[in-house]
Design a protein that fits this description.
globular; TrkH; potassium transport; transport
Length: 464
């Protein structure tokens, strides 16, 4: 009996020692995500510096390679060199791989390899997946990742084939298939990279209903969030949608509807944009330009030709961005809706923020406020820095660039290729912060996050 008790005691000590050892070597999910994205970016930059990556056989200079790899991994789409004419097939495939890994998250691909190898997903890996997917809990996270992979393959394949059929009328069949798949993957992941050449994006298809509607569908599906797609898929069994899905879909629909109408009205008599187009072309162009600030980055109208009110509207749309748990950036639609709800409740003298007969927790409101203020601070700070490094450039152009980088959109008024070396570094850091998230970076660099052991007495200050 005594030997058995001693054996149990020694076993417990050994288990405690293993747990202590694991705790010392444990990295918080935010630290792993920041380090993982950084590692992927530097590997991608190294590949793009190889002579085989560019048509001139010299490879990209380090800073340009780092910029391109960051833009692809952070699914932004800002480019300092033209993708279609600068890179070889190898270079383009490197960029496409970075887009896919960056859009879905490296933890999703790590899980895929674990599935293929028959490995069990540990608790630590589930916590990392929860952080990467921006999910509320780890319950069902592995099942969600499996469906994310299936959704991605099916949507990109269907979109790629539809685009390939359309492109086959303008180019050889094999090239059309490659172009179709490249643009489907790029736009579903809200990246905005294109192969059309000469920084034209999709302006040659401004009145084409197939290209416009297919690409818009890819952008919307990529930006609505995998959690929403999964709930739609399960609706036949559950017959219900969560509050998150209702708010995300409602906010996205309202933003798209109002922005399409506003762009149509603001650009209707602009001789450089909508005026020369047919009635159908006017609608398609307005709709596309309303969809792409969801953090996609491709465009069918020349961005510098848009009127200033339209440009400012696009800046606002870029800052809001896509929905949580998606391939897009920005502060997210649910964050914007929560803040609007808080303002409306305050105006009406109500204590609670209520959506669809559900009360929003105060923690959610505080987090929404933190995300928004952090985003505003980054955009303002980056804009101020760029006004110093890019002297002589139009202020609206600089603000547009800073917002596009933070929200990982990729739209540009033409400033990106003309950036100074320091300006490129600033945009690189901004894209990285926008993709990983200001809060994730803040948590990653914070050594200890413990709740306060006490609370201070309340105080009052004047507001307004």
């Amino acid at each position: 009996m005594l030997d058995e008790e001693l054996w149990k005691t020694e076993k417990k000590r050994g288990r405690d020692a293993e747990m202590e050892k694991a705790r010392k070597h444990y990295l918080d999910p935010p630290k792993v995500l920041v380090a993982g994205f950084a590692a992927i970016i530097f590997v991608g930059a190294a590949l793009l510096m190889l002579p085989i990556a560019t048509n001139d056989g010299k490879g990209l200079p380090f800073l340009d390679a780092l910029f391109t790899a960051t833009s692809a991994t952070c699914v932004t789409g800002l480019v300092v060199v033209d993708t279609g004419t600068t890179f070889t097939l190898f270079g383009q495939l490197v960029i496409l791989t970075l887009i896919q890994v960056g859009g879905l998250g490296f933890m999703t691909f790590a899980t895929l390899f674990a599935f293929l190898l028959g490995k069990r997903i540990s608790l630590k890996e589930r916590l990392l997946l929860q952080e990467a997917m921006n999910n509320l809990s780890i319950e069902g996270i592995v099942r969600l990742v499996k469906r994310v992979l299936i959704f991605t393959v099916v949507i990109e394949l269907i979109g790629g084939l539809l685009l390939a059929i359309r492109f086959s009328f303008d180019m050889p069949l094999l090239k059309a298939f490659y172009f179709g798949m490249f643009h489907a993957i790029s736009n579903f992941n809200n990246a905005g990279f294109d192969l059309m050449g000469d920084f034209r994006s999709l302006t040659g298809y401004v009145e084409d209903p197939v290209v416009t509607l297919v690409v818009c569908a890819l952008i919307i599906l990529g930006g609505i969030g995998f959690i929403v797609m999964n709930e739609v898929y399960e609706y036949r069994q559950t017959r219900r949608f969560s509050l998150h899905t209702k708010v995300a879909v409602a906010t996205s629909g309202l933003l798209l509807s109002f922005s399409t109408l506003l762009i149509f009205l603001l650009e209707l008599h602009n001789p450089k944009t909508l005026e020369p187009l047919s009635p159908l072309g006017k609608f398609l162009a307005s709709f596309y330009q309303a969809v792409t600030p969801r953090t996609a980055g491709s465009n069918t109208l020349n961005i510098p030709d848009l009127t200033q009110p339209t440009l400012f509207l696009i800046i606002f749309l870029m800052f809001v961005g896509a929905s949580p748990g998606s391939t897009g950036g920005g502060i997210k639609t649910t964050t914007f809706a929560t803040l609007l709800g808080a303002v409306w409740s305050q105006i009406r003298g109500k204590e609670d923020v209520v959506f669809f007969k559900k009360r929003i927790m105060y923690d959610t409101i505080y987090k929404s406020l933190t995300v928004t203020i952090s985003g505003l601070f980054i955009v303002i700070f980056v804009t101020m820095l760029l006004t110093i490094t890019e002297q002589g450039k139009d202020f609206l152009m600089i603000l547009f660039e800073a917002t596009s980088a933070f929200a990982t959109v990729g739209l540009s008024m033409g400033l990106t290729p003309e950036l100074s070396p320091l300006g490129k570094v600033i945009i690189i850091c901004t894209m990285f912060a926008g993709r990983v998230g200001p809060l994730t970076i803040a948590y990653a660099v914070t050594l200890h996050r413990k709740p306060d052991p006490f609370r201070y007495p309340e105080g009052k200050i004047m507001i307004g």
